[in-house]
């Protein structure tokens, strides 16, 4: 499926100032946990998409939203997915804009999937993604979304430990409680400001405890975007237009279940009962605006720990002041940082880079970005050299459900 995004520039012109959902912070924070306005919105899931927990060969991984879609059959329940699957399912289940879904797809398949079949595992590596099945994949190791410190799986996620701590695939119930206690300061709402505090707390923890902490574009941008997705996509109703991102809206999608004794257990992700999808698509430009807001309002500079926790090396890419500038940083990083951050055995880097370049040019053509600058590649490789990439240390790649908070 070839998707041509609607003109990004006209979208951007229409939301020149901050998008509505960012402006709406104060009214929403002031709101109590009362009824969400869900008039006219679509209830998810529909009857054709009942919840079923994953079977023994079904792949599930670090992304709760994709796991939820697969557990309801909006995505193939196997967890082996194509671009068409992801664009259709994220639109149907969450009202994700197709340009955003396409970019996330490009990042995911280029780093972790099969360039020929266009298939990706949303969890660990799986021979079903490869052109030749269980034979050696043609373009090298296809790590699946579990593969660490490539675009989609990185340090400082809200509810998963950094891979360095050896458990990055399943929800950590203690981290869920930490996020919940931050939301409690915002009236129990998982607002943009609450999620910025979560990002800051997770960043500070990684900086202080993870000797191979890595926070560079592309990965760092994905980490911030994913936190903005909590209110944007998990809210019951449209966040910023009467939607509510509270415990009832988000817990089931994160796979967090409260036990009678007050502890939390991680369980397969699902949509809550009586939950209504946002009414308008959340697009690439909305996401870039949210990431810019995260990056400029908390002290979370790009950089990496050089093998020790007291050896942070910042990445200086100049000030980022607007959405166009951020879009160009992302585009540049997709082109320049891929070689440094794809260290998967046997990957054909030229093939990966040209796969990305061919596909992102149309998505980014309206941001006025400078053409590819080879010096940037050197800057990124210097900053990336301490990063350690790889599959999860555990031989069993599947998320372990049933872990409880302490
Ligand atoms: C969503 O909002 C509707 C309308 O206020 C409410 O009836 C429903 O219980 C809410 N669902 C969740 C999961 O909070
Ligand atoms: C992670 O697991 C590896 C392999 O079992 C082990 O060598 C390492 O010490 C563990 N790291 C931490 C932080 O527990
Ligand atoms: C290319 O990138 C380098 C390093 O960030 C920067 O110093 C230089 O000005 C850039 N050159 C152009 C033509 O943008």
TrEMBL record:
<dbReference type="GO" id="GO:0004601">
    <property type="term" value="F:peroxidase activity"/>
</dbReference>
<keyword id="KW-0575">Peroxidase</keyword>
<feature type="signal peptide">
    <location>
        <begin position="1"/>
        <end position="17"/>
    </location>
</feature>
<dbReference type="GO" id="GO:0046872">
    <property type="term" value="F:metal ion binding"/>
</dbReference>
<keyword id="KW-0560">Oxidoreductase</keyword>
<protein>
    <submittedName>
        <fullName>Heme-thiolate peroxidase</fullName>
        <ecNumber>1.11.2.1</ecNumber>
    </submittedName>
</protein>
<keyword id="KW-0349">Heme</keyword>
<keyword id="KW-0408">Iron</keyword>
<dbReference type="InterPro" id="IPR036851">
    <property type="entry name" value="Chloroperoxidase-like_sf"/>
</dbReference>
<keyword id="KW-0479">Metal-binding</keyword>
<feature type="region of interest" description="Disordered">
    <location>
        <begin position="32"/>
        <end position="63"/>
    </location>
</feature>
<dbReference type="Pfam" id="PF01328">
    <property type="entry name" value="Peroxidase_2"/>
</dbReference>
<feature type="domain" description="Heme haloperoxidase family profile">
    <location>
        <begin position="47"/>
        <end position="289"/>
    </location>
</feature>
<keyword id="KW-0732">Signal</keyword>
<dbReference type="InterPro" id="IPR000028">
    <property type="entry name" value="Chloroperoxidase"/>
</dbReference>
<comment type="similarity">
    <text>Belongs to the chloroperoxidase family.</text>
</comment>
């Amino acid at each position: 499926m070839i998707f041509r995004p609607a003109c990004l520039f006209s979208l951007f012109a229409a939301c020149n100032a901050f998008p509505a959902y960012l402006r709406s912070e104060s009214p929403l924070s002031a709101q109590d946990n009362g009824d969400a306005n869900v008039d006219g919105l679509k209830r998810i899931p529909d009857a054709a998409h009942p919840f079923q927990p994953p079977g023994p060969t079904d792949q599930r991984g670090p992304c709760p939203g994709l796991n939820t879609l697969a557990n309801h059959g909006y995505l193939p329940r196997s967890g082996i997915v194509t671009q068409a699957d992801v664009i259709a399912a994220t639109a149907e289940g969450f009202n994700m804009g197709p340009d955003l879904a396409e970019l996330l797809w490009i990042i995911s398949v280029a780093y972790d999937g099969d360039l020929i079949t266009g298939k990706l595992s949303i969890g660990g590596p799986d021979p079903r993604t490869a052109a030749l099945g269980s034979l050696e994949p043609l373009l090298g190791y296809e790590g699946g979304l579990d593969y660490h410190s490539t675009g989609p799986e990185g340090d400082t996620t809200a509810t998963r430990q950094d891979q360095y701590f050896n458990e990055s695939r399943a929800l950590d119930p203690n981290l869920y409680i930490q996020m919940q206690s931050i939301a409690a300061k915002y009236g129990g709402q998982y607002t943009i400001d609450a999620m910025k505090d979560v990002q800051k707390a997770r960043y500070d923890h990684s900086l202080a405890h993870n000797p191979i902490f890595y926070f560079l574009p592309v990965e760092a941008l994905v980490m911030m975007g994913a936190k903005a997705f909590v209110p944007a996509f998990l809210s019951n109703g449209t966040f910023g237009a009467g939607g509510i991102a509270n415990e009832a809206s988000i817990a089931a999608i994160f796979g967090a279940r409260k036990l009678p004794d007050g502890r939390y257990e991680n369980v397969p992700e699902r949509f809550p009962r009586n939950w209504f999808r946002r009414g308008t698509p959340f697009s690439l430009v909305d996401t870039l605006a949210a990431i810019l807001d995260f990056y400029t309002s908390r002290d979370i500079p790009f950089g990496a720990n050089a093998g020790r926790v007291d050896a942070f090396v910042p990445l200086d890419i100049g000030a980022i002041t607007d959405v166009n500038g951020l879009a160009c940083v992302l585009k540049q990083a997709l082109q320049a940082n891929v070689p440094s951050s794809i260290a998967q055995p046997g990957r054909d880097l030229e093939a990966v880079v040209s796969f990305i370049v061919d596909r992102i040019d149309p998505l980014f053509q309206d941001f006025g970005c400078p053409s590819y600058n080879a010096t940037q590649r050197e800057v990124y490789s210097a900053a990336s050299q301490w990063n350690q990439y790889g599959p999860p240390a555990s031989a069993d790649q599947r998320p372990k459900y049933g872990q409880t908070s302490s």
